[in-house]
Amino acid sequence: MDPTAEEKQMAMLAHIGGAVLSLISGLGFVVPLVLYLTKKDQSRFIAFHALQSLILQGIVFATAIVLVILTIVSCGIGAFITAPLGVIVGIGSLVLQIMAGIKANEGQWYLIPVAGDYAKKSLGM
To answer: What is the Cα–Cα distance from 85 to 107, expressed in whole angstroms?
Structure first.
């Protein structure tokens, strides 16, 4: 069954809302988490996209923690490497979230690398 217009919009919101909130406050996980928890029993499509977005936000957060630790351990010298890596990870995440949001709004079951496979397994797909 094809997703409804509302399901497409909610799935897109999970990605785009997460990306925007992440840029503004670093709390990008809130939007997909709320959508996943409130809609998972009503729509598999929304649950899939929200879970993917949530997983991607977790990966980005974990990567940021590792980069900060590496910077601290290197007494700040490693910042010449970790800062550009952080920017690359942030931009890459933003691009993936925008692409996934567009695909979700088109009604596609778009797979974000790594996060998509895990979301499929978690939802028994």
So the answer is: 33
